[in-house]
């Protein structure tokens, strides 16, 4: 109940944070027509995960890293569009982080772990914070957000093939990915609920918990920086 009203407040706040041009305010809905044709559904624990059969890069270089081509030809939606539409609280956080240009850099290909709105509600509740308090803490939001991004394209199959440590955009911080879809962070763990949500320049894996670097926990427990 509290969480729901928090999300509503957050949505309103996010609206006020949008640039005056407002071209982000009304992203086109993701169309299933733009998703890869060959999607198979696999089970990860209890969750349904869509995995394209052949996620083949268009041009040379692993998933077109560093070039201005989509990593997956059939997914022209930008990560901005996918996040704004499917992950409103994450999008509000991206707006609040000051990383407003980052989603536009098409040549930076990413793997993004995207917490759901429910995951954010849980985070707010567990820390006794309102969404407004969190969004107002720009350094904290930036740390937590960059901790969810890996500067390489890791599709779900490659994550499930072997346990691995991935460096994140938060310098010096890693995420450990288990072959069972577990994402072990420095101070919280998540599970991939939905894998391989392709956008032009990122593969997004939906997760059920906000990943916290230790520094964020220190900031939260030691008073706001
Ligand atoms: C897109 O998804 C909707 C709802 O699942 C479905 O009704 C529609 O037929 C789909 N369109 C295409 C082109 O697959
Ligand atoms: C799936 O979820 C149910 C209820 O949440 C649980 O009882 C069951 O053990 C889970 N199964 C697996 C394979 O994790
Ligand atoms: C965009 O991303 C590429 C690839 O990671 C990077 O080399 C470049 O510096 C970035 N450009 C800007 C303007 O951030
Ligand atoms: C998933 O894998 C991680 C890392 O290997 C492990 O710590 C965890 O216990 C596993 N979880 C389940 C439900 O098997
Ligand atoms: C996350 O998972 C790891 C490995 O299973 C475990 O050692 C750690 O205690 C977990 N952390 C939290 C915050 O649950």
Automatic annotation (TrEMBL):
> What does UniProt give as the signal peptide span?
1-22
Q: Which residues form the FAS1 domain?
A: 64-211
Please name the PROSITE patterns in this protein's record. Answer: FAS1 (PS50213)
One matching Pfam family is: Fasciclin
Q: Name the GO cellular-component terms.
A: extracellular space
Keywords, in A-Z order: Signal
PANTHER family per the UniProt record, alphabetical? FI19380P1, PERIOSTIN-RELATED
Instruction: State the name under which the record lists this protein.
Output: FAS1 domain-containing protein
